Each structure stands twice: as C-alpha cells, then as structure tokens.
Amino acid sequence: MLDDMAMRGLHEDTQRNYIMSVRNFAAFLGRSPETATPEDVRRFQIHQADSGVQPPTVNNAVSGLRFLFNVTLDRPDLSRRLVLTRYAQKLPTVLNVEEVGRLLEAARGPKYRAALRVAYGAGLRVSEVVGLRTGDIDSTRMLIRVEQGKGRKDRNAMLSPQLLELLRQWWREGRRRGVMLPQGWLFPGKNSLEPLSTRQLCRAVHEAAETAGIRKRVSPHTLRHSFATHLLEQDVDIRVIQVLLGHSKLNTTALYARVATRTIRAVTSPLERLKLLMEGADTGA
C-alpha cells in the first residue's frame, strides 16, 4: 500500500491518514484486512457509529480503505460497501477587523507576530505559513510563493507593502539572533534547521486570543477565513479570492458569502422594494 501511494504521489499527510485508517480496521478485525468480507466492512462502520466516531473521521477512514480495496487489494466489491456519512456543514468562525487587530497585536514575540500576519495578510493555511522559506518572499513582484500547498500545487499569494516591511523587521531580528539561515526557514523552530511546527503556531494563536479577550474558538485557519470574508466584504471578485486561497472549486470559496455580514446587509430585501412600490401606488391613486 505504501508503494502504491508513493507511485501516485500522495502527500505524506494523506499517506499517514490512510495507514492509520487501515491500522484501525485491522485492529477491529483482529486479522489482516486482506481477509476481510463485505460483512466485516459493514460491522466496522456500525462499530464506528456506535462508538461515536465523528463524521469527518468516518469519511477519512472511507477514503483510506477505498484506496486499500480498490488499488492495493483489487477488491472493488469491498470498496462499494463503504458508506460516507453526511453531516451538517457549519459556518466557519470569522473575526471582525477589530478583533483581528487585537489578536495580531497580542501575539508574543516578533516571529509569531510576523507569522500570524502572514496567515491573515496573505490568507495562507497554517502548513503553508510554517513551510515558507526566506526565498519565497518576492519583494520585486510583491508576491509570496507557496510551494506544494494543498493538493501538491504551487501558487502565488499576495504580499502587501505593510506585510513586507514587517517581514523585513523580522528578518533583521532573526539575523541578529542568529536563527535566520541563508535560504532557510522564514519561521524557524527551536532548532534553526527545522521549521516552526503547526502545533506551535496553533498554540500561539490560542494564547494571543486569550490575551486579546476574544471568546470565539479561533485557530490559524480562522485568520484565513477572516482574510477571505473581509476581501468579499470589500467587493473583491469571488473568483479572485478563489485564486488567492488556492481553491480548486468555486463552491468552496462561495462558502464565505454566507458569513460576509457586510455583504448580506448591503442587499436590499424584496420586502423593502415591495413597500416602496406600494407607497408609490398609493401616492399615484
């Protein structure tokens, strides 16, 4: 299965999730998944439901097991027995502009202040932020190069003058501390040869939110959600936002139309138009 995934260029995180799903299935069976029957697959999914496994986890397991059955074992009959779980899609948590400002100001230290501003100012995923190298900042073209983002795709993200100046300040501070290596990580971890971990950045966001008195449940991805929502409220074309976020499907980006409160408030209700028409008719009479 590892060879099959490597041949198809699956991302390391995807491979890890798939293997975990197969391991859980094997532990449930108590024997090799190669010996599984359709009834075994059914019992496993019933076991997941009875154990309170959340729908996203169930669906991740379906993806991993489908790969095993379809590709590695050539058992499509077992793959067809797997059922995806439907679940309600919740609206993302979004901070207003004032809340974002408070959170960014509350970040501790120049490295985290810069990293969180990249997450919000360029709309990057947490894995993309920690994966940046110093050479990815293109001050000539005012772009941030994101290499091998989600779906193993490269793209360019926006780089504002204010963000560039902040990153230059962090570069000078990092050089002074001796942690910024030539062509090294933009946000190095405790060891300069390793990047900041996503867990460390998540912890920094939680601490900043607590310091700023923000009661909403926030994460680095909240800054990405807020970036997209605020652009939409500024009347930026949704197709442009799609490109900036690196979304493959416009439907994914369209989710932000449901949380862009300023955009929603700007729409005139047909009830208001009806009232104006009725008043006009009364005046004419």
Share in β-strands: under 5%
Overall mean pLDDT stands at 87
User: How many strands?
Assistant: 3
Any idea of the CATH class of the largest domain? Answer: Mainly Alpha
H/I helix tally: 15
Stretches where pLDDT is under 50 for at least 5 consecutive residues are none
Shape: globular
Order of helices and strands: HHHHHHHHEEEHHHHHHH
Distance between the termini: 79 Å
| Count of the domains | 2
SS-based class: mainly alpha
In the CATH scheme, what's the topology name of the largest domain? Answer: hpI Integrase, Chain A
How does the major sheet shape up? Answer: 3 strands, antiparallel
CATH superfamily descriptor of the largest domain:
Intergrase catalytic core
GO molecular function, one term: DNA binding
Family: Belongs to the 'phage' integrase family.
InterPro entries: CB (IPR044068), DNA_brk_join_enz (IPR011010), Integrase-like_cat_sf (IPR013762), Integrase_catalytic (IPR002104), Integrase_recombinase_N (IPR010998), Integrase_SAM-like_N (IPR004107), Tyrosine_recombinase_XerCD (IPR050090)
Domain Tyr recombinase: 90-269
